Amino acid sequence: MDRSKRRHSLLRDVERFSRLFLVKEIGINGISKLRSAKAVIVGCGATGTHVAELLVRSGFGELSLIDKDYVDVSNLYRTSLFTEDNARKALPKAVACAEALRRIDSSVRVNPIVAKLNPANAEDLLLGHDIIIDGTDNYTARLIINDVSVKHGVPWVLTGVGTWYGNVWLVNPKQGTPCMRCVYGAVRDDERGNVCDVLGVVPTAVSLVASIAAGLAIEYVLGLANPETSRTYFVVDAKRFRVDALKLVRREDCVACGLRRFEFLNKEYREELAKPVCGTKAVEVNPPKPLQLNFHEVLKGLKTGQVLSVSEYTLRVRVTGGLVVTVFRDGRAIVDGTTNVEKALEVYGTVTGTKLRQEC
Ligand SMILES: [Zn+2]
Hints:
Shape: globular
Bound molecules: zinc ion
Order of helices and strands: HHHEHEHHEHEHEEHHHHEEEEHEEEEH
Strand content: 15-25%
Number of domains: 2
Structural class: alpha/beta
Helix content: 25-40%
CATH superfamily of the largest domain: NAD(P)-binding Rossmann-like Domain
Largest sheet: 8 strands, mixed
CATH architecture of the largest domain: 3-Layer(aba) Sandwich
Strand order of the largest sheet: 3-2-1-4-5-6-7-8
């Protein structure tokens, strides 16, 4: 950046953050640290969108947003940033979130990534950021994030919300504090039950958890988070308006931070071709290799069904029997209205013209 541009952006920041400068622990140095900070948010749902908005409004300079899904009208009550128009267009959540954030602060670099975090892509997608924020809804994704965090010494903020309650924790392996596996072990989603969307969520619990999560990220960037912070597990009760702080201890025999075995990272990993989406009546379809679908060509070949929406990112078609297929440009799709994998693959073939077969 040349001198006059730098001066211009500094003057703009002085005006924008005039009330933040005044906070004793922040001042001009703090604003400068926040402006240089890069965060990645995994999952742009309820918690992810609230944290994203808080970080951008607080001055974070760069934000990457990873999400595989599209905005649905049922998301609106508990998320920040999304609109009915986003849901009508079935806009990918990462894209809708990025567009809204750019309208809040056009100088922030926002990178939407429409993808699912998995053991093969996690290091590529997460490294290069100062802090990782968990906005996911499942333990598997969190264990993947934990492995990247411990292996490479990048802190992350774990979050979770269900009904009126939530939990938040800054995991900071750089300070030798406990990691997720020290506390949770290698918990599987199917062992815990009641995860994903099936529990129900009260939006005030989300915003309380998101506020603490963003606060931990801000304190980390400002250099205010000490080892004591990373040993504290916050339990939020949005019904009785309480936040309790539990103290955690590190396990020397922890598989991740003790033995440094990263069982949730695997470059050879491949997504299942089709599988039911936890907590919903839908099937997710993942072609073995990403496709480059041209929706206009797909529409030309479409012999049956009603087109509900088409955008740069997604195509939605209602097919005979009432199933709704939402296809992304890379060929991934969500087939709504069934949990039958074979049926979903058949309908997927009807809409996209691409036949995929489940291997036995
Ligand atoms: Zn550990």
